[in-house]
Amino acid sequence: MSSTNISASSQWSISEVLKRPVPGRVPFSVEFMPPRDDAAENRLYRAAEVFHDLGASFVSVTYGAGGSTRERTARVARRLSRQPLTTLVHLTLVDHTVEELEEILRGYAELGLTNLLALRGDPPGDPLGEWITSEGGMSYALELIQMIKNSPEFSHFDIGIASFPEGHYRAGSLENDTRYTLAKLRAGAEYSITQMFFDVEDFLRLRDRLVAADPVHGAKPLIPGLMPITSLRSVRRQVELSGSTLPRALEEKLLRAANGDEEANRDEIRKVGIETTSEMAERLIAEGVPDLHFMTLNFTRATQEVLHNLGMAPAWGAEHGHDAVR
Ligand SMILES: Cc1cc2nc3c(=O)[nH]c(=O)nc-3n(C[C@H](O)[C@H](O)[C@H](O)COP(=O)(O)OP(=O)(O)OC[C@H]3O[C@@H](n4cnc5c(N)ncnc54)[C@H](O)[C@@H]3O)c2cc1C
């Protein structure tokens, strides 16, 4: 069987999934990271089962910065796709030549993984540092999309991209950011998933900018990326790594919950964090988003708590059949 047949028979393309009418409020999808070891990999599969049972529209697997996690991306994505879950596999340009990127795409296609999030990636070691194009490699995600779309071997890939509600930290201006994002959509990307954000206005303004600049390509599905807030420490870390902003008012709200002792008041902080993420999601649903994409860090609890608050999942808890791992 050819790779194209495998993918056509076993996997929906995400762009088709986004057009499919769904029962319930709004579809949701989840992001996983390649696990570090076998135990973590098994936990991830259990988490995937939970999200499968909750009706996730698709799952994505990120692409790491180094060798073994990169291999795990393909292996994990393949296993999830057989679960069966519509699976989106990420790919970055970091430390790759054009030939290596082609080889990876060939490998993905052979595994039936043709839903691709085409990304540049961050400079290794310093996510916010200067990008240096590797020898024989590419400089922008746009080039990867163009290469895929111009190649008969890969043109069946269904491509998504990253977009940035606050603008990418290296774009220089929101105008540039809009231009570069649109270039990727015009080159053949079908939808975008946003970086995490904590002010819904930023997401809505990105959507407005894209549609105003190009009513056709700018109106392609824009999926909000949501990182459920579970602690001050983790949200600060995520914000630092992603280049997003933690709004002052939200930080103050979390600090009030901490009441001077983050450790002693962990549960209170978490409660406020999950409520905040749920309120953001509620507003996004009211604004007609096509999907809610949860960055899970391979855990189920926080995402399920948010989904429960939205009326989209049963409550999380031991009495509902969850074990400590989940
Ligand atoms: C949903 C999502 C998933 C992600 N998954 C991963 C992952 O799995 N692995 C990982 O390592 N990282 C991941 N990232 C992080 C991402 O790789 C970084 O944010 C990266 O810095 C930008 O990637 P990009 O694909 O948007 O790059 P690009 O579109 O190539 O843009 C990179 C920078 O160049 C600028 N630019 C674009 N075109 C031009 C041009 N023609 N001239 C000048 N400047 C230009 C852009 O404004 C931006 O500043 C993800 C991000 C998001 C939002």
From TrEMBL:
SUPFAM superfamilies listed in its UniProt record: FAD-linked oxidoreductase
Gene3D superfamilies for the chain: 3.20.20.220
EC number(s) recorded for this UniProt protein: 1.5.1.54
Alphabetical UniProt keywords: Amino-acid biosynthesis, FAD, Flavoprotein, Methionine biosynthesis, NAD, Oxidoreductase
Cofactor dependence: FAD
Family matches, as InterPro entries: FAD-linked_oxidoreductase-like, Mehydrof_redctse-like, MTHF_reductase_bac
Transmembrane annotation, as ranges: none
One Pfam family named in its UniProt record: MTHFR
Catalytic activity annotation: (6S)-5-methyl-5,6,7,8-tetrahydrofolate + NAD(+) = (6R)-5,10-methylene-5,6,7,8-tetrahydrofolate + NADH + H(+)
Enzyme class: oxidoreductase
Superkingdom in the source lineage: Bacteria
GO cellular component, one term: cytosol
Residues of the signal peptide: none
Gene Ontology MF terms: FAD binding; methylenetetrahydrofolate reductase (NADH) activity
Keyword Cell inner membrane belongs to the record: no
PANTHER family: METHYLENETETRAHYDROFOLATE REDUCTASE, METHYLENETETRAHYDROFOLATE REDUCTASE (NADPH)
Name under which the protein is recorded: Methylenetetrahydrofolate reductase
Organism: Corynebacterium gallinarum
Phylogenetic lineage: Bacteria, Bacillati, Actinomycetota, Actinomycetes, Mycobacteriales
